[in-house]
Write a structure and sequence with these properties.
Elements lengths: L2 H10 L19 H4 L16 E5 L8 H4 L22 E5 L10 H7 L4 E6 L1 H17 L5 E6 L5 E6 L4 E7 L5 E4 L5 E4 L14 E5 L15 E4 L2 E3 L4 H20 L5 E5 L38 H11 L5 E4 L2 H5 L5 E3 L9 E5 L5 H14 L6
Parallel strand pairs: 3-6, 3-9, 8-10, 9-12, 12-13
Antiparallel strand pairs: 1-2, 4-5, 5-6, 7-8, 10-11, 14-15
Helix pairs in contact: 4-5, 5-9, 6-7
InterPro entries: TBL, TBL_C, TBL_N
Family: Belongs to the PC-esterase family. TBL subfamily.
Protein name: Trichome birefringence-like N-terminal domain-containing protein
Length: 380
């Protein structure tokens, strides 16, 4: 089996549907500042790198995914899957003045991480960022020796080690962050109060978590037979309540295990979907399919707030361990052109959830790099 197909079999077989939950978030983002304004760790309180616009930049993309990066799975490799337009590759995220972002420096980041382990934990949107970062690092050090390993089973993972730097970048599949286990009868149980499967992640020096999409929907691929919360076992429950309980369990686990460590912790925010063209003034029934240009400003997006976003902010604000929210919502709202659509290699409906790589996730990693390289402390 070829490497890309093997990766898909290990990590995406559980949840390949990629159908968006029908929730979005307001572009005005007023609620951000009530909970995590300092979480954005900007140069000053008036600087927010997550507000800005996409500007054309002919020096982009930062790498050629189809030809030179061995880490992009077929589902994200839009050019390899026949996407003919290329304008979506030529945009750089520019924060509003007085903010600015440095150009991503993969060699500097590899040096900063020398001897360390960086772990991504979450669903396929986290995979989007993970594979983007691997490509950005590989482009910066194309001659560096890399080794890959993977594990299947109930806790699938993929690890890529940059041998010349002693840097390991690993991804752990976790659709809900809390445990999804099989009981003695073989039934799948979503345990809202347990994170026993998280022990391996404690060895990481940098942790990036993200999981919210699958809480809103139940899939034949990514599902449970029962939900357990303490001694209470139910077949189903209000999904917003379940998400809240699960995220609170994650927060307690982080605080209990990492509050007094130097481990840097990030949480990937809500990535906007574009399955409803009315969100940006298009006719009813229009989706992201065929879109080739981003939206120009916040006023062009009319989607409704996603309730899970507010929950994430509230939980992060109550934690002892500083956690940086990668607040990617606004920048992704503007990129109706950046999704994999029919160029995911899937013969089904267009995917307006995941992103082409290279593409939008590269901007997430540029912000991620800025937070790490700038030396700003992580705060709520």
């Amino acid at each position: 089996m070829k490497r890309r197909d093997l990766l898909s079999a290990i990590l995406l077989a559980a949840c390949t549907a990629a159908t968006a939950a029908k929730t979005t978030i307001s572009p005005r983002h007023d609620q951000r500042h009530t909970a995590v304004s300092s979480t954005s760790a900007a140069v000053s309180s008036s600087c927010d790198v997550y507000r800005g616009s996409w500007v054309a930049d002919e020096s982009y993309p930062l790498y050629d995914g189809a030809r030179s990066c061995p880490f992009v799975r077929q589902a994200f490799d839009c050019r390899r899957n026949g996407r003919p337009d290329t304008a979506y590759l030529k945009y750089r995220w520019q924060p509003s003045s007085p903010c600015s972002l440095p150009r991503f420096d993969g060699l500097k980041l590899l040096g900063l991480w020398r001897g360390k382990t960086v772990a991504f934990v979450g669903d396929s949107l986290v995979v989007n960022q993970y594979e983007s970062l691997l490509c950005m690092l590989h482009a910066a050090a194309p001659g560096a020796r890399t080794n890959e390993s993977w594990a299947s089973g109930e806790n699938p993972s993929i690890a890529v080690r940059f041998e010349d730097y002693g840097v390991t970048v690993v991804y752990y599949l976790s659709h809900y962050l809390v445990d999804l286990v099989h009981d003695k009868a073989g039934r799948v149980v979503l345990k809202l109060d347990a994170m026993d499967q998280g022990r391996k992640r404690l060895a990481a020096d940098v942790l990036i978590f993200g999981a919210w999409r699958w809480w809103a929907r139940k899939s034949v691929y990514c599902s449970w037979d029962y939900i357990q919360d303490g001694n209470t076992v139910v077949q189903d429950m209000d999904r917003t309540q379940a998400f809240t309980k699960g995220l609170q369990t994650w927060a307690r686990w982080v605080d209990a295990n990492l509050a007094h460590t130097a481990t840097k912790v990030f949480f990937q925010g809500y990535s906007a979907t574009h399955g409803n063209g009315q969100d940006w003034g298009a006719p009813k029934g229009k989706t992201c399919a065929g879109e080739t240009l981003p939206l120009s400003n916040a006023a062009a997006y009319h989607g409704q707030p996603n309730p899970q976003d507010t929950i994430v902010r509230r939980v992060l604000a109550g934690m002892s361990k500083p956690v940086h929210l990668l607040d990617i919502t606004f920048m992704t709202q503007l990129r109706k052109d950046g999704h994999t659509t029919k160029y995911s290699g899937d013969t089904g409906n267009g995917d307006c959830t995941h992103w082409c790589v290279p593409g939008v996730p590269d901007a997430w990693n540029t912000v991620f790099y800025w937070v790490l390289a700038s030396g700003n402390s992580l705060r709520h």
